[in-house]
Amino acid sequence: MAKNILRKLVNNSQAAIDDGVYDVDVNLQKSNNDLIEIIKSNPHATLLTEIKFASPSLGKIRTITEPASIAKQMIEGGSKALSVLTQPHLFNGSPEYFMKVRQVVDVPLLMKDIMIDKIQIDAAKKIGADFILLIQSLFDQKFLKDIDEFINYGHKQGLKILLEVHTQKEFENALRTDADLIGINNRNLDTLEIELKTTEIILEGYQKSRIILSESGIKTSDDIQYLKKCGADAFLIGSSIMKSDNITEQVRKLVNSY
User: Fold this and answer.
1) Second label for 257, Cα 20 to 30 Å away, from 18, 141, 161, 231?
2) pLDDT for 162-192, tens place per residue?
3) Which of 100, 105, 132, 135 is nearest to 24 (CA)?
């Protein structure tokens, strides 16, 4: 099953590349703020909130409305950084939405996509991304070849890398790379099921050497307090905020979890 879902995600990215989705002709500036410094100095919960209109597990999450407006509401609630989906297939994302957000906010932005090609990394630089996402399992399962090459290329473009893992083994492999942040995805990509305990299991006995983000399935302040106890430094939250009737209030509540 894992191979199937990962294979589908890789194929979707290839289709988007072939369709010219990443052929963007802009040169937008990235943020003046450093997310890693923000995470280290923020007394409250540091949220990386996600603008996404659909997902493989939930289908349609929210009608596609003005992404820039959603971004402003999230920041007003206290979000310190944003993740914007640029993958059109299954996620209803687009580099266009990313650019709209980049033009109205100065917080660090993650280009959230299934990165399989340097063309996407080039696009990230052009649209003003601060971070790109790489998924450890795509390299471990040999869908992609050289993770260090991807990371070095991203760094050369002035981008930081969020490297996502879901298992202890992937985490160990990720720690051997030069990734700037490591994200623990509580969602199992084989089954799309979420288990917050994933963060706890992976971080058990971990001696801090890298900033850790916990991702997926985070809905309440209790979730955030639990994940912080497990050793997470920041939290990537998408669906539970995108489904909310009052995005600003929902973000504010979660930011003030501690």
Assistant:
1) 161
2) 999 999 999 999 999 999 999 999 998 878 8
3) 100
